[in-house]
Amino acid sequence: MNTLKTLFAGALLSGLSSVALAAGNPLSVHVLNLESGLPSPDVTVTLEKQAGQQWQALNSAVTNQQGRITALFPEGQALEKGTYRVTFKTGEWFAKHASNTFFPEVPVIFSADGSVPHYHIPLLLSPYGYSTYRGN
């Protein structure tokens, strides 16, 4: 019984620490595989900000075992109003899983207008389609 309590407490604290990290960083992402219904760990994701006609690289990270990156925005920097691009390197992920895909990457371009303190971008992914939305 004590082992069960310890496992439950550990899972709860792990979940709370993810929430705390996300609360301190203005941008998080989540990738779910629609084919299996499971999270997609090890997806490389890049973040860029539009500067005139160019894109300025800000950060890159890899999804965890839950398919999440809880803090994609660079630490210690404030999210400014503007246009950003999050690119999910889906071709690399499907290749690692010996699966074909029509989309070698999924770019999601969005405007941060400062109306919310945190932006969350979920990606629902399959080999021949995807969907995304502004989460919370």
UniProtKB/TrEMBL annotation:
The keyword Cell division does not apply. Keywords: Hydrolase, Purine metabolism, Signal. It catalyses: 5-hydroxyisourate + H2O = 5-hydroxy-2-oxo-4-ureido-2,5-dihydro-1H-imidazole-5-carboxylate + H(+). Pfam families: Transthyretin (PF00576). Homotetramer. Catalyzes the hydrolysis of 5-hydroxyisourate (HIU) to 2-oxo-4-hydroxy-4-carboxy-5-ureidoimidazoline (OHCU). Belongs to the transthyretin family. 5-hydroxyisourate hydrolase subfamily. This is 5-hydroxyisourate hydrolase. The gene is uraH.
